[in-house]
Amino acid sequence: RAVPSAGSPMYLKTVESVALGGGILGVCGMHPHHQETLKKNRVVLAKQLLLSELLEHLLEKDIITLEMRELIQILWNTP
């Protein structure tokens, strides 16, 4: 999904929605029913999560660096 550029009508509507307390979901995002489903199942989802796959995804999306991934792996394996 493309991020609206500053000054575009969609960007202004998003800013307006957030300012009015509607949050991002007022414009785009998850249906409240889906949010509730995720909340109810978060423990099961977390237990099924493979750290290596998550870290690889975060690395590919440039959310974390190689150094951050290594540090997380070290901390995860520290008793």
TrEMBL record:
Signal peptide limits: none
Ranges where the CARD domain occurs: 30-79
Any Pfam family hit: CARD
GO terms, biological process: regulation of apoptotic process
Entries under InterPro entries matching the protein: CARD, DEATH-like_dom_sf
UniProt name for this protein: CARD domain-containing protein
Species per Swiss-Prot/TrEMBL record: Colobus angolensis palliatus (Peters' Angolan colobus)
Classification of source organism: Eukaryota, Metazoa, Chordata, Craniata, Vertebrata
